[in-house]
Amino acid sequence: MTIIEIKGVIVMNDYKEFYEWYGIECTSPNDVINQLPSDNSPVEIIINSGGGHVDAGNEIYARLRAYEGEVTTSTYSIAASAASIIAMAGDKVLISPTAQLMIHNVSGLVDGDYRAHTHEAKVLEGYNKAIANAYTTKTGKSEEEILQMMNHETWLSANEAVEKGFADGVLFENKIQYIASSYAILPNEAINKARLMMKDQTSTSSIMKDSITKADFEAFKIEITNLINQSKKESTLKPKLSTNKRKGFLF
C-alpha cells in the first residue's frame, strides 16, 4: 500500500516554495497527486494538519475522490479546517484515539467599501455551502446541521467523530499516539517579499542583484519566524489576501 503524508499547512502549489524557504512544513495538491499510484492500488493518507488554503484542500479532496483505487484516510493527530475536508475523501475514514477533527467556516479579508464587503460575505457563504457537501456526503447529516456545526467551530474527539459519522473507526486504541499541533499561515506580505528576494541574482534587471547577501536572507527569515511565533501565541494571525482572492481564502 502506498502511504502519502499530509502534514503542516495546506498550501497552493505556487506557494509551496516560499513556505519551504521559511522552513515551514506544508503540503500542496501536487505533493499528493504526484504520489498516487498509476495502477490504482490502495493508498493510505496520513493526516496531521491544522488546515490552510481552502482551494488547495478542495483540490486534494477531489483528486482523492476521483482516484479509482481504495483510499483510506487516517488522522494521526489533527485534521482541522481544510485538512478535515481531505479526511472526508477516504473510502474508509479512520482517526487516532488521541486525534481531533475540526470544522468551521471559511474566512478571508477584503479591501473596499460596503459593496465589496457585502459581495465578499456572499462569496464566503457560497464557499461554506460547497464545503459542507464533503461533510454531508460522509455523515448523511443535513446541510443545515453541518452549517450550524461550522458556524460554531466544532471540535470532535475520535469517539465523537465516529458517533457523528465523520469517521468510520478508531485506530490502534491501545498504542501511544502523536501530539496535535497547530500551524501558522504566512502573511501575504512575507510571501511577496520572499518572492522578490528569491529572484535570479544573475538577472541584470534585478534590483536585488548586488544588495542582498546571505546575511540579509538569514536576518529576514529570523524576522518572519519571530512574527509567526508571536502571532501563534496571540492566536490572532490574519493573513492578507493575494490579488487572486480565491487563492487567499483560509480554512
Written account of the structure:
Helices cover 42% and strands 18% of the residues. With 251 residues, it is an alpha/beta fold. The relative contact order is 0.16. Residues 176-182, 204-210 and 235-247 have low confidence and may be disordered.
Strand-helix topology:
Blueprint: E1 2-10, H1 16-21, E2 26-27, H2 29-33, E3 43-52, H3 54-66, E4 71-80, H4 82-87, E5 92-95, E6 100-103, H5 114-139, H6 143-151, E7 154-157, H7 158-163, E8 169-170, H8 188-197, H9 214-234, H10 245-248
Parallel strand pairs: 1-2, 1-3, 3-4, 4-5, 4-6, 5-8
Antiparallel strand pairs: 6-7
Helix pairs in contact: 5-6
What attributes characterize this protein structure?
single chain; 251 residues; alpha/beta; 2-enoyl-CoA Hydratase, Chain A, domain 1; 2 domains; eight-stranded mixed sheet; 8 strands; 18% strand; globular
